[in-house]
Design a protein that fits this description.
3 strands, 4 helices, 91 residues, 3-stranded antiparallel beta sheet, alpha+beta
Length: 91
């Protein structure tokens, strides 16, 4: 086995070990669809269609994962969602 291949395998294993978290958005009776959609576009980099689908899922299912990634990326996004009056948490 070549040294380059062994190093690549070690990198692949380390990348797989990264823990991904999720921001889960919860339904409420306060925020409008437009506010939720605009917030997801601005904060979570959603397309308008993606944001609308998430808003519908939150409304009908009670919650929806709106962003997946590393904790350090998700923490400020979740804080911004909370600042806008939305109910969200990182799991």
């Amino acid at each position: 086995m070549s040294t380059q291949r062994k190093i690549q395998e070690e990198v692949d294993v380390l990348e797989q070990e990264k823990t991904l978290n999720e921001i889960v958005l919860f339904n409420d009776d306060v925020n409008t669809f437009d506010h939720v959609i605009d917030s997801l576009i601005d904060i979570c980099d959603h397309t308008p269609e993606q944001a609308e689908q998430c808003a519908m899922l939150v409304h009908y299912k009670g919650k929806c994962t709106v962003k997946t990634g590393e904790y350090n990326d998700l923490k400020p996004r979740c804080t911004q969602l909370l600042t806008k009056g939305l109910s969200a948490e990182i799991i």
